Amino acid sequence: MLNFCTLFDRNYFYKGLTMYNSLKNSCNEDFSLWILCMDNITYNLLKKMDLPNIKLITLQEFETLELLKLKKERSLSEYSWTCASNFVWFLLQKHNQIKTIIYLDADIYFFNSPSILIEELRDKDVIITEHRYTKKYNQTVTSGKYCVQFMVFKNNLNGLKILNWWRKKCLNWCPNSINNASFNDQKYLDDWPIRFKKIHELQHLGGGVAPWNVQQYIFFNKNSVIIGKEKVSNKQFPLVFYHFHDFYLISRNKYYCCKNYALSKNIKKNIYEPYFKNLQNSILSTKIINPKFNFGFRDINLKITHRLYTYIIKNYYFKKIYKKYERKYKNKS
User: Which ranges constitute the DSSP H helices of the chain?
Assistant: First the structure.
């Protein structure tokens, strides 16, 4: 039995649901996905859906007096980052039967089973994932070497020691700003291989593909499996999961993404289009349960910067709506 955990609120609901569906469709082992519902709307909707393999935790069950105090002092994103490590800790303290737990960001999507990644743990106690930045997007100094997107912890003395150190650091300081010591919850991981024993850096190239490193690969569909090929070495690998950072829904039929990263047609076709179709399915299934649910969409500011303007007119999904909004904006001017 594999145990995964994640957290999200109503604004990430479609992404979280899509992540769950991808896990259900790809995982070749029995699993549970523990979800910390960051608001009552998320909890009530998931409870009505009554999805298999999901275990729901409310904020009322999870929050301590210390967390409630920090909640008043931190932004929504800062509080969510603070909760991530503390949620993993909460689960391992409360459920001794969980021997190993895998933390997942809600905006990742599984194209293949994560079992091949978890197998790398072997005699180690923690798995962390490198950003593997493309050279021109290297943000190691500001955002850290590792990404809190896919992390594995064993429920043993060393695993708990590492997790407890991390969660205490996040309780003390978890800023949404660049700092020499930390940036949200992930820059704390930079020295883990030196600071702690039995830390494993994920080796499989199919784990942790994201906008900041995807330029290093090309992808193709082989027998319904998305295969990546590293451009430098020609090494091939099954794509296990992709991190859809900087991806925003505008409506059921439109999205925009990655204004700061270059995405080729190959990447959009093999990675982004399948994800968007599955997001659309999540929207439809959610509307069946609650037709009035309308969170998770982002408005476009019509008074946009030149950079975003340039991006929009080059993006297929924006061409039609841009003309519409351009006319509307001119009429108001």
Answer: 13-26, 40-49, 59-62, 65-73, 76-94, 115-118, 140-143, 157-172, 192-195, 265-267, 273-289, 306-314, 316-332
